[in-house]
Design goal:
heterodimer, A: alpha+beta, 6-stranded mixed β-barrel, 6-stranded mixed beta barrel, 21 strands, B: alpha/beta, Rossmann fold, 4-stranded antiparallel sheet, 7 helices
């Protein structure tokens, strides 16, 4: 054992420099895993601590309709039964706000009207050290987010109009208990007194207000209360949850996020592993003589293998520990980057999570080991007799090798499954990697075959450069894979971003609607129509559509039978609240694919379902659906299935369209898509004037939403580009390592060529061509992969037309070629400098 | 005691079988110094490889101290080499990543000797390289490298030392120095030495001489060595 340990130390001492770059890849991957896991665990800690204040209560009941007397009675009874100590209510609704001074601007906000007890847990944080109290809201006071002040050009003390009522701004909100985290918001939060809500006139029929009851109960009553309320409201659209279920839900989301994100790190580690596998193969070939000598001196194959395994372990451990250090540095920088942010993210402490560090180190070592074992098996084939005569050692593939390969594959699937906490995902990641490796290899081989004719080129350096790419023991395939993969990520993501931006710009250009009016009451319909028809307001292409809110509570069909709402709920999204409409015609973006669309009105309820509903829930023509439309039950026969082109937003899209006649008299509101004025000032005036006349109507401005989407997208793109960049960086490290590894071959060739009369310039050109060609090939492989990626994602995930951005691809290939050529030549400088005689003597 | 019984070696040269060593029987007694001479390609090194168990014979058996080594697996062969056989090569075959001292220590470490380092220092002193112990092979001259190799061959005090053209890569002075060392080892330790060389002058330093040509023994000069005839000779 002493021999094995001593040899491992000596071997590591001798070769760590050459192997360094490969283990830096492991370091980068481990750093990614440890950082991501630590960040998420820190943030999760904050959420855990603040779980109660996140929903501002122990138990929370909510509904989208007015509380019925029955519902109130049930709630009162249950709260008394379970000993609730405190309760408060609030109402949330999106609406418009505008300055009271008549300036022609308006802005959508998310209004929350609260009672005295709010919030039961946590607090509302205010700027400038102001302390929140209910008194700030009483008598038409309002607290607003700073974004609203900026958007409307207001300050504390000014007045704003919400609905038909005036409010005085008494403070600026920094943090808010009970704010849903991560949810998409239509506008900045505005807090008013519940008692002033009626004066705004916002709670008309069909308004999208959410009513919430917040309750404080003793800890041991929380779960029983939630269970009882859920039982009571099983058939009604009231949801009951506790801060714990909220915590559980958020917890599951965090688990998922943590596991999936750490796969990103795993991808980098595996990339490092592939490099280690390749480099171990080269390394063992270079060590064949030493191995033969050791065998000649009496060492057994297993002893020698253990020497090299220990070496890999030592370097894997060093790489992993370096990764943990890198992670620590990155984590320390996060609070600096967040600065004075008021986001909940700024409250986390971002320490290094030791469990994450342990996981990272374990993975780094495991992957190093798994990827080096198979090439190390070659040690067994080295015969000591090669010291007597120069003989090649055949790479024997026997059953032991196959068994080890199978074990290694299982090990890798195990590591991936462990990281993703799912065997399925583990298999998918490994399968995906194997598939991608296969495709990239195939593409690499084809490209090398394609450029083979260049080996007959009259240019000596070019000829040799091409020949070198297929030289035995070269690193062409590994570099193609590593760098190609990096290029693939970067080019793919950038192309997708460009494609998405293009898609959005198409959507808002031309005559597509860029504004939506919501909550137009029946009595306002004619007035709004007249307002829109008035050319001085600058709107065009406006149409009013009646909308109602409905839920499917039963299905009676050939393939699907769902008797109760519980059965429907078991089908997932079918139980959600749908916005429905009725009309007597198809829109230009609709097409009937089964059954027939009705003509004219009928009192017999009939419904046309969208293709997705038909496919997902097996609801077909002839089936009967039971709807709950604001408490009214309606049975409708499915008479057609429609295909909707969702990309054509001009006509909107509905999952369920009813035949006119049965819903005409039901409580309903209208929405109106329209093309607003182009000039920003005119747009603001349009919104202001409309809301001035119809205070409860909300206006969604696509341009504003688009800004938010662009902002989110640029952040996502940045994140993915950073990942792609890390992969590319790892590719560059592997490239440097591969060049260093095969340098002995190059140095010798250069010496021979110099002796034969080649000058430094020629050899430099040769290197430049070789790495230039290699980089171009890697770039092309990545670019081809990116074409496949963008096609698949556009077609299947985003459902947008597939576009190729030639600039991204050409730029990507050119930059990759340049990068590889520069790294290749720079790390081969001593090949150029070495004097030939010294090299030849050394050989 | 080394004994070869009807040992032959045939390899494939392309698709054609090529006999490197024709059936041969020979016995080398303990403490003998045998020089095997002959031109390139006569089968000298192959013979040495067969004795050391580095290579398996096509037919026949090789006995070291009565043990038929052709029946041993690779690991047992390795153990036997570690304990009983020291090897010196024409191209030194030192491990480039180890210092001189470490190169000499390795065989002792393999069999688990505790004082490997101290013994390696003594051995280096014996071959006159005390001052070069911490140099790597690339920092040593050819003669020095071969002396390290010789010290390594003696590491486990093996009863047998096999030397394959140990002076073939050295100048005359260094070559002579190595030969003197070999002679000294033989005289002082009573080590059995089989030396392969094509230099008749060096061969004359041995007790006996065997001449090989085209894989056959054509001459055996020594009265003490019980010569067994090489079978197949006409």
């Amino acid at each position: 054992m002493m021999f094995v340990l001593r040899m491992a130390v000596r071997e590591t001492r001798a070769s760590w420099r050459r192997l360094l770059f490969f283990f830096l890849c492991i370091a980068v991957g481990v750093a990614a895993i440890v950082t991501l896991r630590s960040v998420i665990q820190s943030v999760r800690g904050v959420f855990g601590r603040e779980a109660k204040s996140l929903i501002a209560a122990d138990v929370l009941l909510s509904t989208n309709a007015e509380w019925t007397p029955d519902a109130r009675h049930t709630i009162d009874r249950r709260l008394a039964e379970f000993g609730a100590t405190e309760r408060t209510e609030s109402v949330e609704t999106p609406t418009m706000s505008r300055p009271a001074d008549g300036r022609p601007v308006a802005r959508m906000v998310e209004l929350r009207a609260v009672q005295r007890g709010f919030p039961l847990y946590g607090t509302v944080g205010l700027q400038d050290g102001q302390i929140y109290s209910y008194a700030l809201l009483q008598h038409h006071g309002v607290l607003v987010r700073p974004e609203l002040l900026t958007a409307l050009g207001l300050k504390v003390g000014d007045q704003i109009k919400i609905g038909q009522s005036l409010f005085t701004i008494r403070g600026v909100i920094t943090t808010e208990a009970g704010r849903r985290v991560g949810g998409f918001s239509l506008g900045p939060r505005v807090l008013i007194d519940d008692e002033d809500l009626a004066s705004t006139g916002l709670l008309g029929v069909g308004s999208r207000a959410r009513r919430v009851v917040l309750v404080r109960v003793p800890d041991d009553s929380i779960q029983p209360l939630v269970r009882a309320l859920r039982r009571d409201f099983r058939e009604q659209f009231v949801s009951a949850r506790s801060y714990r279920s909220n915590d559980d839900e958020v917890g599951r989301d965090f688990d998922r996020a943590e596991n999936y994100l750490s796969l990103v790190g795993l991808v980098i580690v595996i990339l490092g592993g592939i490099a280690i596998s390749s480099v171990t193969r080269v390394f063992i070939v270079q060590k064949i003589h030493s191995i033969a000598v050791l065998k000649c001196l009496g060492a057994r194959s297993t002893q020698i293998m253990v020497v090299y395994v220990l070496q890999v372990l030592a370097l894997g451990l060093a790489g992993s520990l370096l990764g943990v250090l890198l992670a620590r540095g990155t984590l320390a920088a996060i609070p600096l980057a967040l600065g004075a942010s008021t986001s909940i993210l700024a409250e986390a402490d971002y320490g290094l999570s030791w469990s994450a560090a342990a996981q990272g180190v374990t993975i780094g070592i495991l992957v190093s080991l798994l990827f080096s074992v198979v090439p190390l098996m070659h040690v067994r084939n080295v015969k000591p007799s090669l010291l007597l005569r120069d003989e090649s050692t055949a790479n024997r593939r026997d059953w032991t090798t196959f068994a080890v390969m199978a074990l290694v594959s299982l090990g890798l699937v195990g590591v991936a499954a462990w990281q993703a906490a799912s065997l399925r995902v583990g298999l998918a990641v490994c399968g995906g990697f194997a598939g991608l490796a296969f495709v990239l290899q195939l593409a690499g081989r084809m490209l090398i075959a394609l450029i083979a004719p260049l080996a007959k080129s009259p240019s000596f350096p070019l000829r040799h450069a091409v020949l070198h790419l297929s030289r035995p023991g070269n690193q062409t395939r590994m570099i193609l894979f590593a760098v190609g993969l990096g290029a693939f990520f970067v080019i793919g993501v950038r192309s997708l971003q460009a494609s998405l931006l293009k898609e959005f710009s198409v959507e808002v250009s031309e005559d597509a609607p860029d504004m939506f009016l919501l909550d137009i009451q029946r009595g306002q319909a004619d007035g709004v129509r007249a307002f829109l028809a008035d050319a001085t307001h600058g709107a065009s292409h406006a149409r009013l559509m009646p909308v109602l809110r409905a839920r499917v509570t039963g299905v009676s069909g050939r393939e699907t039978k769902l008797d109760t709402f519980d059965d429907v709920r078991a089908r997932g999204s079918l139980a959600r609240e749908y916005t429905i409409t009725y009309r007597d015609h198809l829109e230009p973006n609709e097409r009937i694919i089964d059954g027939a669309f009705w003509r004219g009105a009928s009192t017999e309820p009939e419904v046309s379902v969208e293709q997705g509903i038909h496919e997902r829930f097996k609801i077909s023509v002839g089936d009967s659906l039971r709807f709950d439309i604001l408490g009214r039950v309606l049975n409708a026969r499915v008479s057609s299935v429609r295909e909707v082109d969702w990309r054509d937003a001009r006509s909107g899209g509905f999952m369920f369209v009813f035949r006119p006649g049965s819903l005409d008299e039901a409580p309903q509101t209208f929405i109106a898509p329209l093309k607003g004025p182009n000039d920003p000032a005119a747009r603001a005036r349009f919104q202001h004037d409309l809301v001035e006349q119809f205070p409860n109507v909300s206006v969604i401005d696509f341009h504003e939403i688009l800004e938010t989407v662009r902002d989110i997208m640029s952040k996502v793109t940045l994140a993915v580009t950073v990942v792609g960049g890390l992969v590319l960086f790892s590719g560059a490290l592997i490239l440097i390592g591969a060049v260093a590894m095969t340098k002995f071959q190059r140095v010798y060739e250069a010496a021979v060529l110099k002796t034969l009369g080649a000058n430094t310039r020629t050899i430099a050109k040769m290197l430049l061509f070789e790495y230039g060609v290699l980089g171009s090939l890697a770039g092309i492989v990545g670019s081809l992969g990116a074409v496949g990626l963008t096609w698949g994602v556009s077609r299947w995930a985003l459902e947008i037309p597939w576009r190729i951005f030639a600039g991204e691809h050409i730029g990507g290939v050119a930059l990759t070629a340049l990068l590889v050529a520069a790294i290749g030549v720079l790390s081969s400088l001593d090949v150029l400098k070495n004097k030939p005689l010294a090299t030849l003597r050394a050989e | 005691m080394i004994e070869l019984r009807e040992v032959s070696k045939t390899v494939m040269s392309g698709t054609e079988p090529l006999t490197i060593l024709h059936p041969l029987s020979i016995r080398i007694g303990r403490g003998r110094f045998l020089a095997v001479v002959g031109p390139s390609g006569s089968g000298k090194s192959t013979l040495l490889g067969l004795i050391a168990g580095l290579d398996a014979p096509t037919s026949g058996s090789v006995l070291i101290d009565g043990v038929d080594i052709t029946r041993l697996d690779e690991d047992r062969l390795a153990k036997l080499r570690g304990e009983k056989i020291g090897f010196v090569f024409q191209f030194f075959h030192l491990i480039p990543s180890l210092t001189a001292l470490e190169n000499v220590s390795v065989p002792m470490e393999i069999i688990g000797l505790r004082d490997a380092r101290q013994r390696a220092e003594v051995l280096l002193e014996e071959v006159g390289l005390t001052g070069r112990a911490h140099h790597y092979p690339s920092q040593l001259s050819g003669g020095e490298q071969q002396r390290v190799a010789l010290a390594r061959a003696l590491a486990n005090a093996p009863p047998i030392v096999l030397a394959d053209e140990p002076t073939g890569n050295l100048d005359t002075t260094n070559g002579r120095h190595i030969m003197e060392l070999l002679r000294k080892i033989h005289d002082q330790r009573g080590t059995t030495i089989v030396l392969v060389t094509h230099d008749a002058e060096l061969a004359s330093l041995a007790d006996s001489r065997m001449v090989l040509r085209d894989g056959r023994v054509v001459e055996m000069v020594d009265h003490d060595v019980p010569m067994a005839r090489a079978r197949g000779e006409r």
